[in-house]
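go over this record:
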Amino acid sequence: MSENYFEVIRAGINTTFQDNGRKNLNHIGIPASGAIDKRNYKLVNKILNNDINHPALEFAYQGPKLIYYGEPISIAVTGDVNFKLIRKNIETEGKCYESITIENNDEIDLISTNKSVYGYFSVTAKFQIDYQWKSCSTNTKANIGANNGKKLENSQKLHVLDIKEITKRSINYINTRIENIRVIRGTNFDYFSKEAQQNFFSEEFYVTKLSDRMGMRLEGKKLENIVNTNIKSEGLVKGVIQVPADGNPIIMLSDHGTIGGYPKIATVISADFDKLAQLPPGSKIKFKEVNLSDAETIFKLYEMETNTLLSKIT
């Protein structure tokens, strides 16, 4: 067969190409982007024995439905995802966290995530896509990255090159939820009243529907600012929690703006970011304060656990 490709029957919700993201570009207004759930992204590629920075499709809530044309190729899906494989009109339930070989005319229907947000799909081949600043990661707000910086669309073709064969590989992995999100104090923590500071760490907040790859908006007890609801614009990092004048926190996610003028009450520690980003609208969050030294230790443990998981894939 002269070419190998996936045809997009249904694009799904916010389906984009992602990798580990870009580095050292915040000073020119380009955020890192990259996969939101780094652990599930790494797992999908390790299962397929791909390079750890291999492009994958990331989708939110509902994934794409694809039909494949070409020589046999292996795929894998990670996250808490319901999906089906369709071969000659016979449907079988797909299983996450294992390699699956598909053939010409097979269909993959990534139906939905289960009480979570993001899932990942990768293949044992190179997607024929463009890179910008050494990354394919798509930022749809800025039209940066693969697929002309846009989400997948119905009827488009995703060409693949250099298909490789692998033996069956899998791992037993269960996605767990998190409600207590650990944070360190932000640079503007003292802008908020003592009552607001206490409420931030004692009250529950809820994830709203106004959340995307750029940020997660929360609702809950209003956080009173006693100094100024706007500040001179400063640099932002992933996980920082800004509080605009309405008193409802906004957590910056992977496609966040690189500067912002809302006071910053706290920053989510890196080790909790994957599970935070997987919380769907309606989920409750409670914040727990840790110091910088503890955050560094927790992140080292998170990385050790991730590397242990990756080493167990056989």
Summary: DSSP finds five helices and 21 strands in the chain. Residues 180-310 form a domain with the Cyclophilin fold (CATH 2.40.100.10). The chain has a mean pLDDT of 96. The first helix runs from residue 38 to 47.
